[in-house]
Design brief:
The protein contains 5 helices and 6 strands. The chain has helices at about 25-35, 55-65, 120-130, 135-150, 160-180; strands spanning about 10-15, 45-50, 70-75, 80-85, 85, 110-120. α1 packs across α4, α3 crosses α4 (about 135-150) and α4 crosses α5 (about 160-180).
Length: about 190
């Protein structure tokens, strides 16, 4: 899938932990890919924050009333953004508008501040070992999962969970294909 201008989405990333090495640039590209693939308007902002287990535990208990750390949390900001009776997100493109920044939006609109995705690499590293995958794959899944939550995806019901998991898999596959030659000097995949 081609994204017209993936750099238009303002995605900031911060590594506030020292347990694991995190490739911030890659995860910014991944978040931008998700926003573009979900057809969210170009004036979208979100932040990725990679934190230690102590910080994640504090947020997990404070906001979800659950003890201990978790792998990822999403904190939506503009939860009251609506177009007619539809939430403004890439999840409902049939409503005739792709959100703030789309070609038919008012240029005076401020960017949509989607929110923050908080990821705990130390927790993710344990999960990756348990699942037999590398840490980067686990962190990629968590970033996509968090961004989809900001775009109103959920997994409270089995049907929602199936939809979200399928979309995560599809987005990760698309991103892997788009990145497959990015490390080569000529931009082509080697083989």
């Amino acid at each position: 899938m081609s994204i017209s201008d993936p750099d238009a989405h303002l995605v900031q990333a911060f590594d506030e932990q020292t347990n694991e090495v995190v490739n911030l640039d890659r995860f910014v590209r991944l978040a931008r890919h998700v926003l573009g693939a979900e057809r969210f308007g170009i004036d979208a902002e979100l932040t990725l924050v990679f934190v230690d287990e102590e910080t994640m535990s504090e947020y997990h208990e404070r906001f979800l009333d659950e003890p201990g750390p978790t792998d990822v949390m999403a904190f939506p900001m503009d939860t009251d953004m609506v177009l007619g009776d539809m939430p403004v997100s890439g999840r409902s493109p049939d409503n005739g508008d792709n959100g703030p920044g789309s070609p038919n939006s008012d240029d005076s609109e401020p960017p949509a501040i989607l929110g923050d995705v908080m990821v705990c690499p130390a927790f993710a590293a344990r999960q990756a070992r348990e699942r037999g995958i590398d840490l980067e794959a686990e962190l990629s899944l968590l970033v996509v999962h968090g961004v989809l939550h900001l775009l109103n995806y959920d997994h409270a019901e089995p049907s929602e969970e199936a939809l979200m998991q399928a979309r995560q898999t599809e987005l990760l596959r698309e991103f892997a294909l788009s990145e497959s030659g990015s490390d080569d000097d000529d931009g082509k995949a080697s083989g």
